[in-house]
Specification:
92 residues, mainly alpha, 3 helices, 67% helix
Length: 92
Amino acid sequence: MAPKDPDIDAPGAGPDAPADGTTDNVDRELFRKFERLRQLRIEHRDLDDVIARLSLDIHVDEIQLKRLKKRKLMLKDQIERFESQMIPDLNA
């Protein structure tokens, strides 16, 4: 069995792939954006759970609760921004 040539066998290195590797860079950037979006959604969901539990406590620190809610809103804005950036531009 012949050894694999990394230039030929690399993903995105087919005959139609650009020689400068831009396809691979685009894929990596897209993956990073999806991963960041996933992390933001997880953090938003976790904050939602914490806020719900704290809201049940009659001795809750209201300032802390407001800060958590503000952080949750900031995360929601970031999520919406990321989702908006991921929509491809269409030339009409």
